[in-house]
């Protein structure tokens, strides 16, 4: 009896092991199938500052891109393939942006929508060039982002175009001060340690020489190591009689400049580019000090076209705030990728390098009507062709200057 029981026990054990083995094989097959399904997605990565002093930019990009991804997936994806979107925080640090890029590659990224800022974009572009990864930056505006990088394209204007456009606008628009005086003397305060700021300033200064209605009477530079006290630069501008101060800088420093200018009873017209978009969201900043600030930007949230209003409505519903230009840039970026992918017929089972080669060609052949431009086209150099919009801040909101 004992031998019989042992035999039955052994047979039962063998049967159980066999069942586990079969189940294990079936489970592995299911996992493999799932992995195949997971791979059949366009894996779009994003990189930008989600925390820290420039988080307004990165969070806007993340939110705007996600709305576009959700819309595209709801409509059937790209060439019938869904998008998976993964945004990583670089804290406005180029080294951390490179780390984020490597993490996204480990995740399976085959297209990069990033980075958000120019300094980080330049560093990451070196990596994407080596990997032949297609890169579309929503807001990296330095020419260094695309220089000698045929795989990198821009949604925003280049810094030279912003500088030239700003000088031309000031010279031709008939801007006046709050007292009604014609703007004719301009001071510039810029960050000489930042490629975005210095790039815009250089072209602004060159184009200003061609404008007969104003002259640059003062220039003050600062660096990343000294960007909290602007009293010297402001005093020089005030003493020179500048009735407009051009600020090709980011919104955090701009908020300090406006606050310090008010403290010394200096009230010129303040004029900036897309980096000023976000100044109304600076914590503890008195937004009344931004009244009358003018900036050139590709997006106006109060524009009345159907596409803009639908985006603004959705963004406000999700995040309880008005989207900035960076959110609109990212929204357009995802749709630009979609247009290029559909034009070229790429599929998600292609390698990242194969996708890149196809998209590089497609970018020079497509045209897109987006939130930030109508009839946007791209040069093989990566530069976008579109027109800027002039905005002014009135009662704490951005208004399009008609």
Describe the structure.
The chain has 402 residues and is of the alpha/beta class. The chain has helices spanning 2-39, 55-74, 94-107, 118-131, 159-172, 195-208, 231-239, 251-263, 306-319, 325-344, 352-363; strands at 42-48, 83-89, 111-114, 135-137, 152-154, 185-191, 215-222, 244-247, 269-272, 294-297, 377-378, 384-385, 389-394, 397-400. Residues 1-37 have low confidence and may be disordered. It is built from eleven helices and 14 strands. It is 45% helix and 16% strand. The chain is globular, with a radius of gyration of 26 Å. A seven-stranded mixed sheet has the order 7-6-8-9-10-13-14, with helices on both faces. The protein has a three-stranded parallel sheet with strand order 2-1-3. A two-stranded parallel ribbon has the order 4-5. Helix 2 crosses helix 10 and helix 10 packs across helix 11 (352-363). The protein starts with a helix and ends with a strand. Strand 6, helix 6 and strand 7 form a beta-alpha-beta unit.
Short description:
45% of the residues lie in helices and 16% in strands. The chain has 402 residues and is α/β, with parallel strands linked by helices.
